[in-house]
Design goal:
The protein is α+β, with helices and mostly antiparallel strands. It folds into three domains: 33 residues; 156 residues, Immunoglobulin-like (Sandwich), CATH 2.60.40.680; 45 residues, no CATH class. 21% of the residues lie in helices and 36% in strands. The chain contains three helices and 14 strands. Strands 2, 4, 6, 7, 9, 10 and 12 form a seven-stranded mixed sheet that branches. A hairpin with a 4-residue loop joins strand 13 and strand 14. Helix 2 runs antiparallel to helix 3. The termini are far apart.
């Protein structure tokens, strides 16, 4: 009797462990966890998260922005280079940095005590829309070549127009301390998103609280406001929609 119970407990334990293992694997599969090596544009390099979208409704023409380029899940990263393209009608490149004192942003590459040397950080050749970035640690020491995630470059831009555009990564190359190529599985671009959050007509003393998510909704509102009996307030709103680049 005792042997039968013991065998039953043993079988139950194996089944329990198998169920737990399946649940854990299913959980990570469902949330799409990935340990692939990558690189990403980050609009808030002061945090550990990746902010890949910048809401331009909070910005104005001539405002400066600082973006970070982060490596993801690297092992013994020693040397890296990439191109970062942008729309020169919307953004002006104003500088490149390996780290910043204020706000304090340190370079991930120097987290193990290594010294990072800049090989290139500026407009690529005669280009006006592509920045070339290249850095390398001095020497070839596995103890200073870091593992993990972090900021590997910082770039500053001036906003020229409030319109949706992209910062795109190209030609990404990673090398480890032995100068062997590290496969880069993904490159996540950054999006600067122009959004109209509200239209105000101050003279009338009330707010037209229309929230717009895309060009189609703005165009639709513009069409609704254009009618033979349009009021002065409606005409003002329509003119503002046109100013923002939306044509009814």
């Amino acid at each position: 009797m005792f042997i039968v119970i013991q065998k039953g407990i043993f079988v139950f334990t194996k089944m329990y462990r198998a169920v737990i293992r399946i649940c854990v694997l299913s959980f990570f599969s469902a949330i799409n966890v990935s340990w692939a090596t990558g690189v990403a544009v980050d609009f808030d390099p002061t945090t550990a998260e990746i902010d890949s979208v910048l809401d331009l409704s909070t910005k104005s023409v001539n405002d400066p922005i600082i973006i970070g380029i982060k490596c993801l899940n690297v092992q013994n990263l020693d040397t890296y280079s990439f191109d970062l393209s942008f729309n020169p009608a919307s953004l002006e490149f104003t500088g490149g940095y390996k780290s910043l004192p204020m706000p304090p942003i340190t370079n991930f590459m120097e987290s193990n005590g290594g010294e990072l040397i800049e090989a290139s950080f500026g407009l690529k050749g005669s280009s006006i829309d592509t920045v070339n970035v290249a850095f390398s640690l001095t020497g070839s020491d596995s103890s200073t070549a870091p593992d993990g995630n972090g900021v590997i470059a910082l770039a500053s831009f001036k906003i020229l127009t409030i319109q949706t555009n992209w910062l795109k990564l190209h030609n990404v190359e990673f090398l480890d301390y032995a100068h062997d190529i590290l496969t880069v599985d993904s490159a996540a671009n950054g999006k600067l998103e122009a959004q109209v959050t509200a239209i105000r007509h101050l003279a009338s003393g009330f707010e037209h609280g229309a929230s717009f998510q895309n060009r189609a909704s703005c165009t639709l509102l513009g069409r609704m406001l254009v009618s033979p009996g349009a009021t002065a307030n409606q005409i003002v709103i329509q003119d503002r929609i046109r100013t923002l680049g939306f044509k009814p």
